[in-house]
């Protein structure tokens, strides 16, 4: 099998979900060139990223593609040569639930000027299809109270509370 251009094979995204994006918007795995397509500007609608050099980005990308293979699945939405949406799943392999796999959904960000066009919803649908295709039985995520209605519209339900500790 040929090595995929991006982080992983695009075949893992449901073709039905991928084709539901508006014509000029493409959902696909993260690629190394995305550093120059505004990947960081996009993800900064979510949180600060620090000043990451291209070399540092490539190092992280290579790690995800090799050592993190089968664990890290990063998706982007490209529109007119620019990254306008991001989202990822991190696959956790468990001992419980018959050695079940679960997907942690992270880094959901849609550029401000593209919000409200159902791109966020479609990003979640793409990540869910990916999670199912790599053998996960559920997806979980943590979010602010403000974003809860968005995730309810995406088909999620509240389950427990998120706790955190910084180091
Ligand atoms: N509150 C209430 N409803 C919302 C909200 C909200 N904050 N955001 C979206 N919705 C609703 C929309 O109105 C729409 O409803 P409808 O189907 O009845 O019309 C539905 O949810 C789908 O909305 P989309 O258009 O797909 O949402 P959008 O593309 O704007 O993406 C997102 C939503 C991802 C929250 C975007 O606003 C964003 O990037 N925000 C900043 C970053 C952020 O907070 N990301 C989430 C972090 S949590 C995580 O990463 C796990």
Give the SSE layout:
Blueprint: H1 15-18, E1 25-29, H2 39-43, H3 54-65, E2 72-79, E3 82-93, H4 96-99, E4 101-110, H5 119-133, E5 136-140, H6 148-153
The chain binds acetyl coenzyme *A.
What structural class should be given to the helix and strand makeup? alpha+beta
Shape: globular
Total domains, how many? 1
Strand neighbour order, sheet with most strands = 1-2-3-4-5
Taking all residues together, what is the mean pLDDT? 96
Quote the CATH topology. Answer: Aminopeptidase
Question: In this structure, how is the largest beta sheet organized?
Answer: 5 strands, mixed
Radius of gyration: 16 Å
**Beta-sheet strand percentage?**
15-25%
Explained architecture:
The protein contains six helices and five strands. A hairpin with a 2-residue loop joins strand 2 and strand 3. The model has no long low-confidence stretch (mean pLDDT 96). Strands 1-2-3-4-5 form a five-stranded mixed sheet. With 167 residues, the chain is an alpha+beta fold. The chain binds acetyl coenzyme *A. Its EC number is 2.3.1.4.
